[in-house]
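Aim 2 progress. For ABC transporter ATP-binding protein, the working sequence is reproduced below.
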Amino acid sequence: MALTTDSIKSFIQYGDISLAVRRTLDAALDTQDDDLVTEAISWSKQYHRLQNNDENPGQDFFNKADDLITRISSFPSGRFAAMPLLNVDQIGKSYSKGNFTLHPISFEIRTGDILGVVGENGNGKTTLLSCLSGDLAIDRGNIIYHNLRKADYYTIKGHVAFIPQRIPVWYGMLKDNLHFSAALSGVKGKANELMVDFMLERLNLSSYAHLTWKQISSGYRTRFEIARVLLQKPSLLILDEPLANLDINAQQTLLTDLRNLAKSVRHPLGIVLSSQQLHEVEKVADNVLLIKKGKCIYTTNTQNESAASNAIEIESNAERELIGNVLGAEATVQYNGGFYTIVAETISAKQLLQKLVNAGIEIQYYRDITNSTKRYF
Ligand SMILES: Nc1ncnc2c1ncn2[C@@H]1O[C@H](COP(=O)(O)OP(=O)(O)OP(=O)(O)O)[C@@H](O)[C@H]1O
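Predicted structure tokens for this construct:
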């Protein structure tokens, strides 16, 4: 576990304590040593207590970190190996009412993969996700779930977890629902207590454990739902717009956590998530599908062959005419209400930026979108 513990040490060194705590919990779980997991949970609780009281961690906190890191690193590193999970071959779907059609689409997902599904409202993201989760029957094509012997509804449901955009109401306390969820997947007795405690800490829900659905915000309901389905150990986790109810920090935390969860040594999984937050999704996804009017018009897996020009996106108060004059015939400039999209075939994204800066144009925001789905939005 030397690699993992080295990164935890560096998070602590640079003050990224929250990240260090989350990674330590994951690494402790990967050791499968219950005592170590219990101690990591209590260390994490100490951190959250300090945070809630606006206090800085003291020496005892860092000593405990050293102790946990040393013990975790004495375990052999498990090896993550990507395995085929799902093959989606030319699937399509129409509804009995209305005109919408999801046109044939193909892709594959392996354990450890994150697939981002992006597109504007009403373009078919939820439809595609519901086909993958088994909630909607497909009209054509084939989905192969590699580690299932049968692909009937109940078997798929035991293997694929789907978190909808609007989290359904649950009854009773959050903690009891988690115990129930773990029990449904066969985790009983002490192991159930440990795993629920772990999940509450891991998703920073411990101080909400005794609250009900009505008493927590929509962002926390999303976190609760993630904790609940993870206790059922799915091999494919599908999340419909999970970022929608989260603040910007929580979005980053969730995406980094999903990245790590997918490649967990103990329980690797595939993840599919839909979102409007294109750039955020592109940062963590292995492949991004852009769906427009029910058609997959772009995937990042094929972009390397198709990106024949360079593109940047900038935010600037400069007039379009001035930008156009500075760049001349080498680039086309488009204004998209707030942003300029600039495309050029012969000059690189960096050179485009350089020219603008050299001409004294003030730029509030810049992004190289040469290989981004954003170009096709
Ligand atoms: N049960 C249904 N019967 C008929 N049409 C439907 C049904 N469900 C969805 N649609 C239509 O299918 C299209 C795609 O909807 P879908 O929810 O898949 O899009 P989306 O990209 O997820 O949108 P959003 O980002 O708003 O959630 C829409 O035009 C919607 O009206």
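The chain has a mean pLDDT of 90. This observation will guide construct design in the next reporting period.
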